Amino acid sequence: DTAVSQTPKYLVTQMGNDKSIKCEQNLGHDTMYWYKQDSKKFLKIMFSYNNKELIINETVPNRFSPKSPDKAHLNLHINSLELGDSAVYFCASSPVRQGSDEQFFGPGTRLTVL
Amino acid sequence: SQELEQSPQSLIVQEGKNLTINCTSSKTLYGLYWYKQKYGEGLIFLMMLQKGGEEKSHEKITAKLDEKKQQSSLHITASQPSHAGIYLCGADYTGTASKLTFGTGTRLQVTL
Predict the structure, then answer these.
(1) Integer Cα distance of A32 and A94 in angstroms
(2) CB–CB contact B44 A103 (8 Å)
(3) Is B104 in Cβ contact with A102 (below 8 Å)?
(4) Which residues of chain B does A2 touch, with a Cβ-Cβ cutoff of 8 Å?
(5) Distance between CA atoms of residues B56 and B58, nearest Å
């Protein structure tokens, strides 16, 4: 059973396009995250949602808009894609907002902007 | 400069050899997480350390957090090809684990 799933796994698109990446977790977790991993493998948090409520928004351009229709889903929509958006995007989830709990990561979505 | 630095950036070891990866924080940690990323895949949780001086082991991997809670080391004993991947340390600076700050990663290759 897949705990945290992301679709698509690969996404190749032209500059200026709008695209979405979907994330679903079947762990019953309350908190979900989006991370961006750049070409140097540096992983940086973008957003965090708890029970559909935005908790963290880390200086991300407003072209990026997360949407959480329910606590099991956190989708990432990106408008007007730029070359610098090329990266691997990871979704993650964790059980609770407070306390030190493991974050479970999805397999990642490799976005390539041409 | 980064809040969280990992060293070395990359490592090539012969199968059977021991190795250590370090993670150094510029400020005190509430918690320190170690993850492994296999090439082209997601992150797999290895261990989490919270208390100064804490040490945890899982199979051939041991992680320690120093007393000041600013440095952690990950030690692999008798490395195997299955240990190859990218090791990332993630710091909890808030005490809630709601936001992890990750290090730059260490790429490990294990040769036969």
Answers:
(1) 6
(2) no
(3) no
(4) none
(5) 7
Structure tokens at A42: 């540096």
Per-residue pLDDT at A57 exceeds 70: yes
Nearest CA in chain A to B101: A44
| Interior angle at CA B38, CA B34 and CA B43, nearest 5 | 45
How many residues belong to chain B? 112
Quick check: B44 and A105 CB within 8 A? Answer: yes
* Cβ-count burial A57-68 (b if 16+ within 10 Å, e if not): eeebeeebebeb
Whether residue A46 contacts residue A38, with contact meaning beta carbons closer than 8 Å, is answered with no
Instruction: Kindly report, residue by residue over B5-55, the tens digit of the pLDDT.
Output: 999 999 999 999 999 999 999 988 889 999 998 876 778 889 999 888 999
Nearest residue, CB atoms, A98 vs list B42, B45, B96: B96
CA–CA dist B101, B4 (Å, integer):
7
